[in-house]
Amino acid sequence: MGKRNGKHRPDKVAIKAYVTKWRKAVIAVTAAVSDMTMTEILWDGVETIAKSKGILDKDGKVTAAYKNRVAVAESMIEQIGVDK
Asked: What is the pTM assigned to this prediction?
């Protein structure tokens, strides 16, 4: 199987975040020590907060209270495009 060389799956979008070198280094080391990707590390934090705020249920599914908001945000992301 060939390498992706910077290409991504069509169902994936980028999240642009600017952080200090120190924060990126901490994320990178945490990921390596945890045998996770940096994306998995970031999602773990987001998922924990989303569950505490009632956006996701205990199984990681969007709750009824936020279903429409998440759907609208997802639609807007799709319309804007990957690199915006």
From this structure: 0.78
DSSP 3-state assignment of 57?
A: coil
Chain centroid offset of residue 60 CA: 13
Q: Which two three-digit tokens encode residue 43?
A: 């999602």
Instruction: Check: CB of residue 55 under 8 Å from CB of residue 63.
Output: yes
Please tell me the distance from the alpha carbon of residue 39 to that of residue 12, in angstroms, as a whole number: 12
Q: Which of 34, 71, 10 is nearest to 45 (CA)?
A: 34
Interval 42-75: pLDDT, tens: 999 999 999 999 999 999 999 999 999 999 999 9
- Report which secondary-structure segment, H or E, holds 25: helix 21-34
Fill in the DSSP letter of residue 36: -
